Amino acid sequence: MSVTRGWQFFMHPGPTNIPQRVLQAMARPAIDFTGPQFVALRDACLERLKAVLKTREGFVIAYAASGHGAWDASIANLFSPGDQVLVCQSGFFSEAWAKTAAHYGLRVEVLPTPERRAVDPGALEERLSRDRAGEIKAVLLVHNETSTGMRHPVAEARAAIDRARHPALYLVDTISSLASFDFRMDEWQIDLAVGGSQKGLMLPPGMSFTAVNPRAWAAAQRSRATRRYWDWRPMIENGRQVRFCGTAPIPYFYGLEVALDMLEEEGLENVFARHRRLAQATRACVRAWGASGGPEVFPLEPEAASDSLTAVLMPPGHDADRVRAIAESRHSVALGRGLGSLQGRVFRIGHMGDLNATTLLGALAGIELALAEAGVPHGPGGVDAAMRALRAAGERQTEAALA
Ligand code: PLP
Fold first, then answer.
1. Do the Cβ atoms of 350 and 308 come closer than 8 Å?
2. For a substitution probing ligand 1, which of 88, 89, 144, 176 has the most ligand atoms within 8 Å of its CB?
3. Which side of the chain, N or C, has fewer Cβ within a 10 Å radius?
4. If you measure from the C-alpha of residue 196 to the centroid of ligand 1, how many angstroms do you get, rounded to a whole number?
5. From the CA of 114, how far away is ligand 1's center (Å)?
6. How close is the Cα of 233 to the center of ligand 1, in Å?
7. pLDDT tens digits, one per residue of 317-329
8. What share of the chain is helix, strand, coil (3-state, %, to 5)?
């Protein structure tokens, strides 16, 4: 029997590590979810979440559901069967959101994106400019594609929609970007944002939400779609959520209150800076491994590399799942697998949520050992490169603080 000892490095790109403070907050007795104590907690949490989403215009509607539920809600409320939407291709999660739309009877067009590249705002502008009849009712974009570790250009896509003078609604999935790197719902004129509990918000999986601005709310009133669980109308009064469809997910609000405390104590911009440092260190490490035909950072453009996770592309003929299995069983490092067409081709290192540099370095050391034991060719000194990147980032920060 194999026995594990010491710290287990959970490096999945969601769910992420749940801080003890959050776990303890959640381990409290249930209360009446219609009573004043819960109502005050719910209202305060939903209001504070708006600050994380950087919205004043929009309001948040939470569900006792995983992110897939919020996807369903986004489609079920805004559109009528037969409506057309344009989904910007980014990978496994854009495909899954597109499938949700198709299930609701929408006509789904995919704006193609070459593999390992970011969504092209120019191509979006070109497609929307051709839609003179305004057939396309919405553009759907995943901010951070968790299957590829790629950040997509949300602000630039907004500018492309504006340049094309197109009235489409703009829907953005921020499940694995929110509270990890910058997301600005109002400034980028996002009509609907989809979020989830289990990534940068450091909660368990199982609660998701949509943030809705007045344009999206108006579209929901026009929609002819049949809705039940996801129907916003009975949940909202005077621009705020006053009930859930069924029992409220009370423990998630206990946890969310503390997770928001933690984000506010650190400061959102400092949270982003920490994620950026950890991402840069991870990529420096993978680049060192990549010498002499080793694994590579999946995105080809450095600016498209995500701050919340790194997808590592294996050299041809080597199996990412074997590396994952060795990393987990021998070195206590749990990694995300490749999804869909990337299964076996990539493993994913999550570096989001409740994480520090030393934990990351330990995990990278475990992965470097696993690469060697799996017989994967790779350059030496990945962990050294990560430490150098962390030191350089620390020096830049000190200089900025002294300037
Ligand atoms: N969107 C993105 C970007 C995700 O990463 C995920 C899950 O990882 C989802 C949607 C789906 O969320 P869930 O698995 O909570 O249903």
1. yes
2. 176
3. N
4. 7
5. 22
6. 25
7. 999 999 999 999 9
8. 45, 15, 40
Q: What are phi and psi of 9, to 5 degrees?
A: -90, 105
Question: How far from 90 is each of 98, 152, 280, 290, CA to CA, in Å?
Answer: 11, 8, 22, 24
Q: What is the pLDDT of residue 292?
A: 80
Question: Can you give the pLDDT at residue 345?
Answer: 98
Q: Give the nearest ligand 1 atom to 69 CA.
A: 16
Residue nearest to atom 11 of ligand 1 (CA): 67
> Which residue reads 């050299």 in tokens?
315
pTM comes to: 0.97
DSSP β-bridge partners for residue 60:
211
Residue 63 CA, ligand 1 centroid: distance in Å = 14
- C-alpha 173/C-alpha 14 separation (Å) is 15
Kindly report the protein residue whose alpha carbon is nearest to atom 8 of ligand 1: 14
pLDDT band at 4 (very low <50, low <70, confident <90, very high): confident
> Is 251:243 a contact under the CB 8 Å cutoff?
no
Check residue 305 and report its DSSP letter. B
Rg (C-alpha) for the chain, rounded Å, is: 21
Pick 401 or 298 by higher pLDDT.
Answer: 298
Of 91, 64, 311, nearest in space to 208 by CA: 64
Q: Going edge to edge, which strands form the sheet with 346-350?
A: 9-11, 333-337, 346-350, 309-313, 296-297
* Dist CA 244 CA 102 (whole Å): 26
Residue 110 has pLDDT above 70, yes or no: yes
**Residues with C-beta less than 6 Å from any ligand 1 atom:** 14, 66-68, 93, 142, 146, 173, 175-176, 196, 205
Q: State how far the Cα of 210 lies from the Cα of 236, in Å rounded to an integer.
A: 12
Token look-up 């769910």 returns 15
User: DSSP characters for 7-22?
Assistant: --EEE-SSS-PPPHHH
Please give the single-letter amino acid code of residue 87: V
Ligand 1 closest atom vs CA 145: 3
Which ligand 1 atom lies nearest to the CA of residue 71? Answer: 10
How many angstroms separate the alpha carbon of residue 68 from the centre of ligand 1?
7
